[in-house]
């Protein structure tokens, strides 16, 4: 396990409880924009970072695995002098959160796992996507990717937000995206879920085509002892962005209860 110094944005009270937000594949820390102000207003120290290979973070040579992504979070906490934090992750960020729950529970106050999966196949799909991005760039997958992030109704009524989301994906470094495809291709955390003892909330988007609630979120919640499961209506894969008020309410409820 190796840790790289990921790009981070820290906002809020320096002495407040720390909430770390971990992004999805193809996005960066800006996907959590809707959650920042509500948490800062309530006294939290909000730490958003770009997963390695994404945004302004380094793009080390691959392959990567979940231990690398989790190690980056631990290195981030160490660098910030944070002993324990609430971790909120979506998709790839949620996968990283599950790894931390298994291997570094002593660093966590709570887990909020959004629109994610413990095993997201088929593996060949991820291998093919990585090959496409390496040959043609992230622009080749941006339209389809953002189409999974939000519902058609949201896309039609929010053209400016769609342009922002597409730009975020096309700006993602090609090799970073492809190497993280490899992480998901090889991931299987189903058997490890019962090892997670951190208070956990699992949130799914009712209309998420990438990680449908019943076949992914519900399985995670059933596998983690005591986990709570919530489904948010009219939300696809980037549910926190499409339905910010409800996702933020649930996140705040979780981090307030898990002290």
TrEMBL record:
Pfam family, one: Abhydrolase_6
Ranges of residues in domain AB hydrolase-1: 19-248
EC number from the UniProt entry: 3.1.1.24
Keyword Hydrolase tagged: yes
MF-aspect GO terms: 3-oxoadipate enol-lactonase activity
GO cellular component, one term: membrane
Keyword Cell membrane: no
GO biological process, one term: beta-ketoadipate pathway
Domain of life (superkingdom): Bacteria
Keywords: Hydrolase
UniProt-recorded name of the protein: 3-oxoadipate enol-lactonase
């Amino acid at each position: 396990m190796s840790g790289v110094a990921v790009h981070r944005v820290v906002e809020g009270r320096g002495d407040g409880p720390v909430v770390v937000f971990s992004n999805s594949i193809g996005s960066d820390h800006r996907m959590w924009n809707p959650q920042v102000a509500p948490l800062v207003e309530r006294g939290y120290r909000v730490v958003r970072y770009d997963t390695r290979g994404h945004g302004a973070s380094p793009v080390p040579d691959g392959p990567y695995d979940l231990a690398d992504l989790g190690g980056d979070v631990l290195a981030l906490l160490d660098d910030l002098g944070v002993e324990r934090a609430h971790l909120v992750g979506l998709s790839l960020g949620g996968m990283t959160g599950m790894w931390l729950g298994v291997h570094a529970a002593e660093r966590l106050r709570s887990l909020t796992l959004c629109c994610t999966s413990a095993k997201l196949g088929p593996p060949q799909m991820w291998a093919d996507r990585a090959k496409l991005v390496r040959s043609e760039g992230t622009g080749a997958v941006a339209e389809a990717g953002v189409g999974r992030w939000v519902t058609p109704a949201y896309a039609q009524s929010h053209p400016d937000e769609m342009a922002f989301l597409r730009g975020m994906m096309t700006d993602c470094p090609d090799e970073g995206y492809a190497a993280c495809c490899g992480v998901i291709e090889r991931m299987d955390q189903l058997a490890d879920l019962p090892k997670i003892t951190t208070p956990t909330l699992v949130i799914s988007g009712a209309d998420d085509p990438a990680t449908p609630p019943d076949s992914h979120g519900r399985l995670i919640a059933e596998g983690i002892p005591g986990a709570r499961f919530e489904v948010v209506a009219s939300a696809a894969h980037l549910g926190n962005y499409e339905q910010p008020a409800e996702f933020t309410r649930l996140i705040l409820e979780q981090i307030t209860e898990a002290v």
